[in-house]
Specification:
Layout: E1 22-24, E2 30-33, H1 34-40, H2 46-54, E3 58-60, E4 63-64, E5 71-72, E6 79-81, E7 84-85, E8 94-99, E9 127-129, E10 137-143, H3 146-153, E11 161-168, H4 173-180, E12 184-185, E13 188-189, E14 194-201, E15 204-211, H5 218-225, E16 229-238, E17 241-242, E18 252-254, H6 257-264
Parallel strand pairs: 10-16
Antiparallel strand pairs: 1-2, 2-5, 3-4, 3-6, 6-7, 8-10, 8-18, 9-10, 11-15, 11-16, 12-13, 14-15, 16-17
Helix pairs in contact: 1-2
């Protein structure tokens, strides 16, 4: 294990989620959004990269592209910025961070302090893989490995994400049953979520949520529908990669080659093959 850094801190089609960062082309290859490709290469933040793309400064396979979400197949498509090939981002690296509450999951600090401020000493430009909102904490990956980012953010792989959630409000058997049923959020029908009661104490309840899709603020919206107020929300695992107990908020370590391989070995997720949730 690496030495820990001690820095301080839709269309309602059912059973399908759309990633904002990755997708699949007509040949079935995983792709990344063009603005994320520029961000990974260290050109600019994703927000600034989108502005540069709209200004016509980026070409993909010799054609000017003005859509920030244009899909790029890494290793196949040639991307140029200001008529120059993108710089090599350097050694591929992926960090596991215990995200502190109060920081943004962004490489753009225009709206406040971000998780990237905690890794300012790390060479190269790493970007958050997926999102945890400002009020949530726990396991967050940051990487410049395009293949890994595409794999982790593509919905077809359905990477399992586990959260420990503390709530206030009445939480009985009927409440749990509602949380486990398909719920409609923002016009979209969610797949059933595995929810487990961990313990109760002093009017608060601790729950374990297991998700294979990640809609925007999904757990918060689910709890709001059943009258639960979230006190804390912490992601504790992605697949078999767990948040280390000795990694304090704001600390991070590098993933090993074995851990990265295990994440990449996660095959396409078959929701129909999931066991019945109880």
């Amino acid at each position: 294990m690496k030495t820990k850094n001690r820095s301080a801190d839709a269309s309602p089609t059912p059973r399908r989620t759309v990633s904002k960062e990755s997708s699949t082309d007509s040949g079935g290859e995983a792709t990344l959004r063009l603005q994320l490709v520029l961000a990974q290469a260290g050109i600019a933040s994703r927000r600034r990269a989108a502005e540069m793309i709209r200004a016509g400064r980026v070409r993909v396979n010799a054609k000017v592209i003005r859509e920030p979400g244009h899909p790029v197949v890494l290793g196949r498509d040639q991307v140029n910025f200001d008529n120059q090939p993108l710089p090599n981002p350097g050694r591929r690296r992926t960090l596991l961070m215990n995200k502190p509450i109060g920081l943004l999951c962004s490489a753009d600090g225009a709206q406040g302090k971000t998780v990237c401020d905690l890794i300012a000493s790390v060479p190269g430009r790493l970007v958050p893989v997926g999102r945890l909102d400002r009020d949530s904490g726990g396991l967050l990956l940051l990487s410049n490995d395009g293949a890994l980012i595409a794999h982790l953010t593509h919905p077809r792989y359905g990477h399992r994400k586990i959260y420990r959630v503390e709530v206030a409000g009445p939480c009985n058997a009927a409440t749990l049953a509602r949380l486990r049923e398909p719920m409609e959020i923002d016009g979209y029908t969610l797949r059933p979520v595995q929810v487990t009661l961990l313990r109760k104490q002093g009017g608060h309840t601790w729950l374990r949520f297991v998700l294979h899709e990640g809609r925007n603020r999904q757990i918060r919206k689910m709890c709001a529908q059943v009258g639960l107020n979230i006190i804390s929300l912490v992601r504790i695992a992605i697949d078999n990669l767990q948040l280390p107990e000795d990694l304090a908020p704001g600390q991070w370590r590098e993933l090993s080659a074995q851990e990265i391989k295990a994440l990449l070995n996660q095959g396409p997720h078959d929701p129909e093959g999931e066991p019945t949730l109880s």
